[in-house]
Design brief:
By secondary structure, this protein is an alpha/beta fold. The protein contains 23 helices and 17 strands. The chain has 4 domains: 107 residues, no CATH class; 101 residues, Threonyl-tRNA Synthetase, Chain A, domain 2 (2-Layer Sandwich), CATH 3.30.980; 259 residues, 3-Layer(aba) Sandwich (Rossmann fold); 83 residues. A 10-stranded mixed β-sheet has the order 6-5-14-13-12-7-11-10-8-9.
Length: 684
């Protein structure tokens, strides 16, 4: 037999829509299902499924076990009625009472033929049924005797079964004999019908019209609905023209349709699929009710900034990592929602990489990042001007390092630096100065909104965010006030990874997360006050995810910081603040003393005049100060800034903001001077 000729590409007949392509089945795009189910192949998911099955069975056993006495009493009460019903229905069946009405009708109508026929039928039925009943009773008696002879307690079990059956037969129709064990959403089963019913209640015209035309318009992708981690997972295709974003926009209605808490229902788009492919996760419990999971590196292990950093877990219990190298991180939330703890995890990860240089500034002043003091090249805690000035000087040094790093990379041979970026090998060569540099600024709104230094912070940090990641500099920022003044546009537009915990409105949501996230259903406004440490994470992958950060309290963080110091001591990479080198670098000044000095001889003086004289007195510190900066600094020290009459340079009288020298002298002795600066000195 001759081989079939190869097909001519020029003569291939195109396949019309709807036409089967059996001639070339290998050309069809098909998604092969895995041989082993996904839930079984993944060890963590398999463990969750086994735990759920055990909990589900244990729930039933415990629920019914504790109600055993009640079930017994209820059965004994209902058994007599059941016996009566059994005798009554048995008698009716044995003596063919169902044909009694027909026989009476034949007698009443004097239909002798019909009556004779029915009487004959009844006689045959009664004889057959009496024989069957006698045989059944005889076999039951013989079985009971055998059971009693073989195993005496077995007779009691048979009696209990008979009583139980009679109790079930005699139960009231409105009251079940046995209570339902499934009394909480954690034990209820999610089925495709339940999901379709919930989607139908969303009020989306595309879904309702499609289901009206075809009840199977919503197609579930194999294996459909199943257990996945601590909950249920469903993958399905929405009707044509309906997008996942529309479903996410009505997540509250979807949760109502599924009879679940809002914190248990998570509709998400499927990665690498069309816009109508929906991934629906329905957890057994809200994430906030699960026990916190300890940070994987809390007990042991170094870190590598070129590798993923453990950040948290998603709704399915999967670990979610974040690669810090070549990107920046922005964390935003309301106060007391866990943003600083999230930032602390990233700082600790960087601390455990002995190559990294840490510059940490916590501008709230509570010491939440004090764990970094053990290893930081520069460190500060406080919202006062002294700390902000030290932070600004540090940011200037980081910004100046951008050009140095770029020049080093540009001059390296192509075989050593083929892609013109920092590699692990280059980062390990300390002499090149390309080691990872982590700039962490907590409560960064204090810097960007400062009246005197805010513009320079904006300019420098924006340059670091834009150019730094490619040069090995990693900016980490968090803020509790995500608005235009506190979070400049140049930073929002260029920072790579965003993590948004609970915020109050759409504007704040889209300030932290990418623009239009709110319209796409990615809403941190849906989180409740109890959802601490839970937020939307974007930029780490192609898909936004709900992540609950790992747990690491202040005591653990301090222990990790000490462990990181021991690692760095062995590697010889400690420098700066952690070795006391920063102490001599910062000047010791007293703002009140400087203001009193420059106001000598004046009873009242304008704030703008004080600013100009301070800049002349100490230009390295007060350069850039204006009347507003002076006023803010004096107010926190108990000095009232009021309207003061004075004379301008051209001799005109004017009324401007200023202070009285007598009040300066009175406040200088007990002025409220913030502490907690970078070096612990007197604050400005």
């Amino acid at each position: 037999m001759s081989a079939a000729p190869a097909p001519d590409p020029d003569n291939v007949v195109p396949i019309r829509p709807g036409q089967p392509d059996a001639a070339h089945p290998w050309d069809r795009a098909a998604q092969r299902r895995p041989v082993v189910p996904g839930w079984f192949a993944d060890r963590q998911t398999r463990r969750h499924a086994a735990r759920w099955a055990v909990r589900h069975a244990a729930h039933h056993v415990a629920f019914h076990g504790i109600r055993g006495p009640k079930y017994l009493a209820r059965t004994l009460i209902c058994a007599p009625r059941g016996l009566a019903l059994a005798v009554y229905h048995g008698w009716r069946w044995l003596f063919d009472r169902e044909g009694h009405e027909l026989r009476l009708h034949a007698v009443a109508t004097r239909d002798q033929k019909a009556y004779a026929t029915m009487a004959r039928i009844r006689k045959d039925r009664v004889r057959t049924r009496l024989l069957a009943a006698a045989v059944t009773v005889g076999m039951a008696v013989i079985a009971a005797v055998i059971v009693h002879l073989v195993w005496a307690p077995g007779l009691w079990l048979l009696a209990a079964a008979v009583v139980g059956g009679l109790g079930y037969l005699g139960r009231p129709r409105t009251v079940p004999l046995i209570d339902r064990a499934v009394v909480t959403p954690a034990a209820e089963r999610i089925t495709p019908d339940v999901i379709v019913r919930a989607l139908e209640k969303l009020g989306l015209a595309g879904i309702n019209a499609a289901l009206k035309a075809d009840p199977l318009a919503i197609r579930f992708i194999a294996p459909g609905v199943g257990r996945d981690g601590p909950g249920w997972r469903a993958e399905l295709d929405l009707p044509y023209g309906v997008t996942v974003a529309e479903v996410m926009d009505r997540r509250d209605k979807l949760a109502s349709g599924l009879r679940r808490q809002l914190a248990c229902v998570w509709p998400l788009p499927a990665p690498d699929q069309h816009e109508g492919r929906l991934l629906l996760f329905i957890t057994d419990k809200p994430m906030r009710d699960l026990p916190p999971a300890a940070w994987p590196l809390a007990a042991k292990g170094p870190a590598d900034l070129f590798r993923p950093a453990p950040f948290g877990k998603d709704q399915r219990g999967r670990a979610i990592p974040v690669v810090l190298m070549f990107t920046g991180v922005l964390i935003g939330a309301m106060p007391r929602m866990g943003k600083t703890m999230a930032l602390r995890l990233l700082v600790l990860f960087a601390a455990l990489d002995v190559r990294a240089e840490l510059r940490v500034w916590e501008l709230k002043g509570t010491g939440d990042l004090s764990c970094a003091e053990h290893v930081a090249h520069s460190y500060g805690s406080g919202a006062d001007d002294d700390t902000l000035r030290a932070c600004l000087e540090d940011v200037r040094q980081v910004a100046a390092d951008l050009d140095h790093r770029a020049a080093v990379i540009r001059k390296l041979p192509r075989d050593i630096c083929p892609e013109n970026k920092v590699t692990p090998e280059l980062a390990s060569k300390r002499s090149l100065g390309l080691h990872p540099l982590v700039l962490a600024v907590s409560e960064c709104q204090e810097a960007f909104s400062h009246p005197a230094m805010g513009k320079e912070f904006d300019s420098l940090v924006s340059a670091i965010v834009k150019r730094g990641p490619a040069l090995g500099i990693i900016p980490l920022l968090d803020t509790q006030r995500p608005d235009a003044a506190s979070l400049p546009g140049g930073i929002r537009a260029n920072i790579g990874v965003r993590y948004c915990l609970r915020v109050m409105d759409q504007t704040a949501n889209d300030m932290v997360l990418p623009t239009s996230s709110y319209k796409a259903g990615i809403r941190a406004t849906d989180f409740a006050q109890a959802d601490k440490g839970i937020g939307w994470l974007t930029g780490h992958s192609d898909q936004a995810e709900i992540v609950r950060t790992w747990y690491c309290d202040a005591i653990q963080a301090d222990q990790i910081g000490r462990r990181a110091r021991r690692l760095r001591e062995a590697a010889g990479t400690l420098s700066g603040y952690c070795l006391g080198e920063q102490e001599a670098a910062l000047p010791v000044v007293d703002l009140m003393a400087d203001v009193i000095a420059v106001t000598e001889g004046a009873e009242r003086i304008w704030s703008e005049t004080i600013a100009a004289r301070l800049a002349e007195l100490r230009p390295e510190i007060y350069k850039g100060w204006d009347a507003s900066a002076v006023g803010d600094a004096l107010r926190v020290r108990g000095v009232d800034v009021v309207q003061v009459w004075g004379q301008t340079d051209d001799g005109q009288q004017a009324n401007r903001r200023g202070v009285a020298r007598a009040q300066l002298l009175a406040a200088s002795g007990d002025a409220a001077r913030p502490s907690g600066t970078a070096s612990g000195r007197e604050a400005l």
